[in-house]
Amino acid sequence: MVSRYVSAPIELSPAAASGDYSRADLIFHGVDHSLASYEGRVYINAPKVNASAGRDHPAYAGSFHIFGHGGCFGDVGHCDIPTGPRDPFDVRQAHPLTPVAKVVIVTDALKRAIAKAGGDSITVTVICVAPAKDSNEYLKFDEVRLLTYR
User: Fold this and answer.
1) Residues 6 or more apart from 52 whose CB is under 8 A from it?
2) What is the 3-class SS of 103-119, one letter each residue?
3) Which end of the chain is least crowded, N or C, by CB within 10 Å?
């Protein structure tokens, strides 16, 4: 099964719109990795793309992969992620289920999309490809941002 995410239009900076950058990244913040493993296939300016598109689709920009935890098998509260600020002297690692950030380098795909459509914004579509029966809950993250470098 497949689930999809289609972003609202992401505004391009003047440098990004003109192609004046050497690298472009899409950064997915707060990615949940508590459930099953999956591949997130990223497409630019293709809001109607579906799982049959694949990596050879002209709008394909790259992928990120999640090695999921497969759900919680502990006692009550075992998988609850602590909230609030940590003590500055707490040297323990973060909780294993703390959401992560994933970066997809999209330099060439962004340049192709801008050359084809122009404009001052893009949309990002992510297709969740997972081996499990139902992947509609796997693709969860807080936000996606476009970052360009000169």
Assistant:
1) none
2) EEECHHHHHHHHHHHCC
3) C
**Does the pTM of the predicted model rise above 0.90?**
no
CB of 50 closer than 8 Å to CB of 126 = no
From its phi and psi, is residue 138 left (phi > 0), alpha (psi between -120 and 50) or beta? alpha
Domain ranges of the chain: 2-71+105-149
Instruction: Give pLDDT tens digits for 67-125.
Output: 887 777 777 877 778 787 888 898 988 888 888 999 999 999 999 999 998 889 999 99
- Rounded to the nearest angstrom, the gap between the alpha carbon of residue 97 and the centroid of all alpha carbons in its chain is 17
Higher-confidence residue: 88 or 26?
26
| Cα–Cα dist 138/68, whole Å | 9
For residue 7, CA distances in Å to 28, 38, 85, 133, 144 come to 11, 19, 30, 25, 8
